[in-house]
Specification:
The complex is a heterodimer of chains A (about 240) and B (about 900). Chain A has 10 helices and 1 strand. Chain A has helices at about 1-30, 35-45, 45-55, 60-75, 80-95, 105-110, 120-130, 145-165, 170-200, 205-235; one strand at about 135. Chain B has about 900 residues and is of the alpha/beta class. Chain B folds into 4 domains: about 55-110; about 120-190 and about 450-540 and about 580-595, 3-Layer(aba) Sandwich (Rossmann fold), CATH 3.40.50.740; about 205-430, 3-Layer(aba) Sandwich (Dimethylsulfoxide Reductase, domain 2); about 730-875, Barwin-like endoglucanases, CATH 2.40.40. In chain B, strand 34 and strand 35 form a beta hairpin. The longest helix of chain B is centred in the first third of the chain and has 19 residues, at about 145-165. Chain B is globular, with a radius of gyration of 29 Å. The two termini of chain B are about 50 Å apart. The chains are: A mainly alpha (about 240), B alpha/beta (about 900). Chains A and B meet through helix 1, helix 2, helix 3, helix 5 and helix 7 of A and helix 1, helix 2, strand 1, strand 4 and strand 6 of B.
Chain lengths: ~240, ~900
């Protein structure tokens, strides 16, 4: 069964690389105002391939692909105008200055109150510290911003891939278990509420759809992690 | 094998290629981003230790709320996990803890609100010259860097200065344009047009000092100290509600008087929480009609007084201590017939100011007026106390003088158990000089070379119409204010809000929004998207007091704290996101304007803190001598990294900082007691007041001359009844036939515990606890088909708002109580404010000494036809863009 095993290991490597890319992609989308470089990656065919690999049903991401098609065409017609539209929506949903319909911090959903820098924020900070990470904006910026939590997942996903490539499977298992723990204790706790609140946006150009995508990706990723952990533990 | 692995095996994806493509994608993302919202790998993660125990730090509670209390935060690595209040010593009536209220205890909800402003923002369609000005309040926003923000502002200020001159820059810094750090920068820049407002003081702002109704040079000091309240037989409260407006210990002080046997009487349209607490008898007076009521009380006192059988008036007091009461005591050179007594009796105008006459206006029955008058009788120990709410009325300039007159007629001044005057906010129920005095940060005062200053009551009109009544320079406390009026042209092109919530808290908000949509640039410093900021072009995020190195509150009485304490606080957390201090902005803007910021800020904020710390003084136990409060060692100075000298005081720096407060321990019979006017009343000749006559002036030529020269409206030298613009009489189409008019109800704006003025209104805990309805009497509600909880459309001649109805018999019929300070949330389609902002309903009509008439508003009410207003706490996004 060596061939088949090799195939499985190749597939796991692909899944790990794919997770790393998707988390990095989502982090980048939420982290800052959009620019042309970011949109090029978003609209690149690789994004669809990446999502296709984790689609449970073939039409899981169809809505999002439709959005990518529209964006591609908008970009072709008038890139600066499209970027401007995206920036405006990003500012309205992620920056303010008005109260946000879906404040992108975990504490808001844990407490069900629009507050940042709460006890739950310290727990997120502690999770980062266990891997020697701190937000670049520490201590002025709250640790549990969606982009930061996704970046943590992205970093750990990349580390897992690196250890996997190096054949250090024990480390991979431990990393994947920690990622699963982080999903369960953090992202999964609030991503659905966040995604739902993002739909209250007055504007539905891109980001509300990204929030739904993020929710789906995270829910799927827990299953992906389970699958890989189970395989690595049993082999 | 699982689904995902199987699926990939079924596809023709190669490991090497896919990993390379993923890596390439990730790299491209790295190039696209600029590192925002990203994690960094640490060299030494041990720099952060979340396992260590939290530390209790004295935290600021700095608002203009009516209290001044100790607040402490349990801090773990910049995160506040608990809050508490004063537990430095046991609580007792004589030596009370300085306990916080629901707002202070929600302070962390405010500082760490997700809606804090995090970055400088620019309105999308603003450009130099204004861009599309109409879009203010409904435009999209763009995040900009500090450098861009300051460049935009500096360039526009320079352009406007060149084209229109410095006086076209309207700088508003809250209650005074001179008090913010930007004032110094703009002063160095050549100056700015100021804004002035009588604020909470209404017609107490200037007038009392002209006729001797002020002690110690400031408000609230004609009232004795709190221990003496316990000596009163009767405490008559006019227009005050310390339970809502003076949190801290004020209500407790009044309660001690109650326990000691005092009877309370409450005069107000609202049977408020204080009256309820103190079981006060209620005199349900109509808004803005106190003058009529008090004139009738004077009438009863004069006509019922019988020196032997029914002594009500203290003739000896009137004779020795006042001028103007009767023809025999008029100032030289004026017509003796113009005296107060003959005015009240109607001797010359044929119109006696009887209870029957007053009753028709003020709504209190003539029987109740007569009964109330007798309560003032000279042989009882009476405290006649008032808040300033009823003086925040149009045409009320003679009200404080009339309050003084009643107190003087009945001799309730200058003796234990007798007192008359205003008492509110942090000094409510506790007169007397500060026992701890604030220090000074030592910064130089930068003058404003421009003399223009526009009254709040016409500021928005002035922006729109280019004309205003110049009545002197500076704010309502300025020596150069209240001069003879002079109509000036003015062309405002920049509105710079460096603090406060002026668009929200000035009369005539609807006009204010229009004015904001006229100018070339509106700048606003704030912590949230306040109403000022919502209608601005460039919004600058500023830090809260919790993000500053530290500071002090109190030690100057008026609105700062009670006389017995000074509060100190330390930094709780680092500045959130890109928020900066106002001073940082002032310094950086000065640089952009080509000015030397060192002229205004020669040393840093830490040195300023130290200077203030070292110069706080405290009274000695002898009750007379003041000396330094804080003991500061060489080590303290070294640790702070400041320049200074060690000194000895009553508390070490370390202990002061830990406690968060220094409180003078008081006890019965201590040396800190205070009887206002004591020396004057004992011997007026030897201790004259600072008035023309040296006495209390019931006839004040100076008052009438000053106010009449200002040119807003006219008054007499004695307190007389003046028909109030937008007052009760104006609720009638025809007063003579009593035909009601278009706006048949009077509306008042009680201070409300959800907020401190407008501050805290975005805090959900407080929104939930205090729903901010409009209070209606059930009779008025029924007459308009309004049931409990219905959404009510309230319309004045200036604007429309919505609120849900709360029905209460505690409010007299004909009066509507709309809590003060709610943030505007104007529906751009209908123009109706869904936020319930009080000043949407008020207009720009300055009267007398430039008084803001917040409590003189007339309206109609009706059940709203549109969708029911959802509660504020349920609003997904408070601000509709």
């Amino acid at each position: 069964m060596e061939n088949s095993d090799n195939q499985v290991y190749d597939s796991i490597a692909i899944l790990l690389a794919n997770r790393s890319f998707i988390y990095h992609l989502l982090q980048s989308i939420y982290a800052d105002e959009p620019n042309r470089e970011l949109m090029e990656v978003v609209l690149d065919n690789h994004t669809r391939e990446a999502l296709n690999l984790i689609a449970e049903d073939d039409d899981d991401f169809n809505n999002f692909y439709g959005l990518l098609d529209r964006l591609s065409s908008d970009m072709q017609k008038d890139a600066p105008e499209t970027i401007d539209k995206l920036k405006t929506e990003y500012t309205y949903l992620m920056i303010g200055p008005a109260e946000l319909v879906a404040p992108p911090w975990e504490s808001v959903y844990i407490l069900k109150e629009p507050l940042i820098f709460q006890e739950s924020t310290l727990k997120v900070r502690q999770a980062y510290l266990e891997y020697d990470f701190l937000p670049a904006g520490y201590p002025n910026e709250a640790d549990d911003h969606i982009a930061l939590e996704l970046h943590f997942m992205a970093h750990l996903a990349r580390l897992a891939l690196e250890y996997f490539e190096a054949g250090e499977y024990e480390k991979v298992i431990s990393l994947l278990e920690d990622q699963k723990k982080f999903l369960i204790e953090h992202l999964l706790v609030w991503i659905s509420d966040f995604a739902a609140d993002m739909q209250k946006s007055k504007s539905h150009y891109f980001y509300p759809a990204v929030a739904l995508l993020t929710e789906k990706v995270i829910i799927i990723d827990e299953k992906v992690l389970d699958e890989i952990i189970l395989f690595l533990k049993s082999s | 094998m699982g689904n995902f692995i199987n699926k990939i095996m079924s596809k023709t994806v190669t490991r090497r290629n896919f990993i390379a493509a993923s890596a390439a994608g990730t790299t491209a993302l790295g190039l696209a981003g600029c590192g925002s919202n990203s994690l960094n790998l640490l060299n030494d993660a041990k720099i952060v230790d979340l396992e260590k125990e939290g530390e209790w730090i004295a935290a600021a509670c700095w608002h203009n709320c009516g209290g001044r209390c100790v607040n402490k935060a349990l801090v773990v690595d910049g995160v506040v996990v608990r809050q508490k209040t004063d537990d430095n010593h046991e609580d007792s009536p004589d030596y009370p803890q300085q306990r916080g209220c629901l707002r202070g205890r929600s302070q962390r909800q405010q500082v760490f609100g997700a809606d804090r402003l995090k970055y400088p923002m620019k309105r999308k369609h603003w450009e130099p010259g204004g861009g599309n000005k109409e879009l203010r309040g409904k435009d999209e926003w763009e995040r900009i860097s500090w450098d861009e923000a300051l460049d935009y502002i500096a360039n526009e200020l320079k352009r406007v200065k060149n084209e229109y001159g410095n006086r076209s820059i309207l700088h508003i810094g809250g209650w005074s344009s001179r008090i913010t750090d930007i004032s110094s920068t703009l002063g160095l820049f050549g100056g700015y047009c100021e804004y002035w407002n009588t604020n909470s003081f209404g017609s107490w702002a200037m007038a009392p000092k002209l006729y001797g109704f002020m002690q110690q040079g400031i408000w609230d000091q004609t009232v004795n100290d709190r221990f003496d309240l316990r000596n009163c037989d009767t405490i008559i409260m006019l227009s005050m509600n310390p339970a809502w407006s003076a949190m801290g210990s004020a209500s407790w002080h009044y309660l001690q008087a109650k326990k000691a046997g005092a009877k309370f009487i409450g005069i107000d349209p609202f049977y408020n929480e204080s009256f309820s607490l103190l079981e006060a008898e209620w005199i349900p007076v109509r808004p803005s009609t106190d003058v009529a009521l008090l004139l009738a009380i004077a009438y009863v006192l004069i006509t019922k007084d019988e020196p032997v059988l029914n002594p009500l008036i203290d003739w000896d007091f009137l004779h020795r201590c006042t001028v103007g009461f009767d023809a025999e005591h008029m100032p030289e050179g004026v017509d003796p017939n113009g005296n107060f007594k003959d005015y009240v009796l109607g001797t010359f105008d044929g119109f006696p100011k009887t209870p029957e006459w007053a009753s028709e206006i003020c709504g209190v029955s003539s029987l109740q007026i007569e009964k109330l008058a007798l309560e003032f009788g000279k042989n009882r120990k009476v405290a006649f106390l008032c808040g300033m709410a009823s003086a925040r009325s149009k045409n009320s300039d003679n009200l404080p003088q009339l309050i003084m007159t009643i107190g003087a007629m009945t001799g309730h001044m200058g003796k234990s158990g007798h007192m008359t005057g205003s008492t509110m906010h942090a000094t409510s129920g506790n007169g007397g000089p500060a026992l701890v005095c604030a220090g000074s940060n030592g910064l130089p005062a930068i003058p404003n070379p421009v003399d223009d200053s526009i009254n709040a009551g016409e500021v928005w009109n002035a922006v729109l119409e280019g004309k205003y009544n110049f009545t002197g320079s500076g704010d309502f406390t300025s020596e150069d204010q209240y001069k003879a009026g002079e109509i000036r042209d003015i062309d405002i092109n920049v509105i710079y809000h460096s603090g406060g919530a002026t668009l929200q808290t000035s009369d005539g908000m609807a006009k204010g929004i229009e004015a904001h949509r006229k100018v070339d640039l509106v700048v606003s410093h704030s912590q949230f998207l306040t109403t000022n900021s919502k209608y601005a072009d460039i919004v600058l995020p500023v830090i809260t007091e919790w993000e500053k190195f530290g500071g002090f509150d109190g030690g100057t009485l008026v609105h700062s704290s009670n006389r017995e304490i000074i509060i100190t606080y330390s930094q709780i957390t680092e500045p959130l996101y890109e928020a900066k201090s106002d001073q940082w902005i002032a310094v950086e803007l000065a640089k952009k304007l080509g000015l030397d910021p060192k002229k205004a800020f020669p040393f840093d904020e830490k040195q300023q803190y130290f200077n203030e710390l070292a110069s706080i003084t405290v009274i000695d136990e002898d009750g007379k001598t003041y000396g330094p409060l804080v003991t500061i060692s060489q080590d303290d100075i070294k640790e702070l990294g400041v320049t200074g000298q060690p000194q000895n005081g009553k508390i070490t720096y370390k202990e002061f900082k830990e406690n968060g407060v220094y409180q003078v321990k008081r006890y019965q019979g201590d040396n800190y007691g205070y009887i206002a006017y004591e020396d004057f009343v004992k011997d007026p000749q030897q201790n004259p007041l600072d008035t023309e006559s040296g006495k209390l002036e019931i006839y004040s030529r100076n008052l009438a001359d000053t106010i009449n020269a200002m040119g807003f409206s006219k008054i007499e030298p004695i307190p007389t009844y003046i028909k109030v613009i937008d007052g009760y009489e104006d609720t009638y189409k025809d007063w003579a036939t009593k035909e009601k008019g278009e706006f048949p109800y009077q509306l008042i704006n009680p201070h409300y515990l959800r907020r401190s003025h407008s501050v805290f209104d975005n805090v959900k805990w407080l929104q939930e606890a205090w729903a901010n309805p409009v209070f209606l009497n059930p009779k008025d509600a029924k007459e308009n088909g309004i049931a409990k909880g219905d959404t009510v459309l309230i319309t004045s001649q200036y604007g429309k708002i919505l609120r849900n109805a709360s029905l209460t018999e505690l409010l007299r019929p004909g009066v509507i109580a709309l809590p003060h300070g709610s943030w505007a949330d104007v529906d751009e389609k209908t123009g109706i404010d869904h936020g319930g902002a009080d000043n949407i309903l008020s207009g720009q009509t300055p009267t007398g000494q430039g008084v803001s008439g917040f409590n003189t508003v007339i309206v109609r009410i009706e059940k709203y036809n549109g969708a029911r207003l959802i509660s504020d706490v349920e609003k997904p996004s408070k601000i509709v863009l």
